[in-house]
Amino acid sequence: MKSNYWIYVPAQYDPGQAAALLVWQDGQGLVERDGSTRAQIVFDSLTHRKKIPAMIHVFISPGLVGTRRMRSIEYDTVNDQHARFLRDDVLPEVYARYNIRKDGYSRDRRQPVGRHLRGFSPINSAACSHASAASPAFSRSPV
After folding, report:
1. 106, 113 contact by CB (below 8 A)
2. Least buried of 24, 65, 98, 127, by fewest C-beta within 10 Å?
3. Residue 134, CA distances (Å) to 23, 72, 139, 143 in order
4. What is the third-level CATH fold of 5-133?
5. How many helices (H) and strands (E) does the chain have?
6. How far is CA 67 from CA 42, 62, 140, in A?
7. Number of other residues whose CB lies within 10 A of the CB of residue 1
8. What is the pLDDT of residues 83-131, one digit of tens each?
9. Closest Cα to residue 132, out of 60, 72, 124?
10. Do 8 and 47 contact (CB within 8 A), yes or no?
11. DSSP letters of 52-71?
C-alpha cells in the first residue's frame, strides 16, 4: 500500500520548544495553501494570535493499492493496523526532523494539544479507534 503525506510547519515553530502534533486523515485536501479550505492560512492566523500553540501538521491521504483507494478499509476497520502504520512508518520521520511533544494530551490550558488525529466524518471514529489502539501515542480530542 502506498500513502502520500505532507508535513506543514508554521513559521512560529521553535525547535527549542516541543511542538504539538496534529495528524489529519484525508489531509490531501489541506495541502494547497490557497485551496478551498485555506487551512494553512487559518492555522497561521490562529497561531499568530496565540489562540492555538505552534503545532506540526501531518496531512495524510488514504492509501492506494494500485489505483484502488483503501480509505474505507483504513479508516472504518476497528483494529490497530492503520494506527501502527502511522506510529511505526510515518511519524518516526516527523519525530526525527522536529521536536514533538512526548505526551498524547495535556491538561495545560495554554498547551492543550499533545498528539492528535483529526479528520472529517467518518474519520472521527478512526481517530478515536487509533487513539485507543495506539495509546499513549495519540489522544482522543477533548473537543
Report:
1. yes
2. 65
3. 14, 19, 9, 19
4. Rossmann fold (3.40.50)
5. 5, 6
6. 32, 11, 31
7. 13
8. 788 888 888 999 999 999 877 655 444 544 555 565 555 555 555 555 5
9. 124
10. no
11. S--EEEEEEPPPEETTEE-H
- Is the torsion defined by CA of 122, 128, 134, 140 positive or negative? positive
Indicate the residue type of 33.
R
Q: Which residues 6+ apart lie within 8 Å of 70 measured at CB?
A: 1, 62, 63, 64
Q: Which residues fall within 8 angstroms of residue 43, CB to CB, at 6 or more apart? A: 8, 10, 52, 55, 57
Query: For residue 98, which amino acid is it?
Result: Y
68 close to 34: Cβ distance less than 8 angstroms: no
Q: What is the pLDDT of residue 17?
A: 93
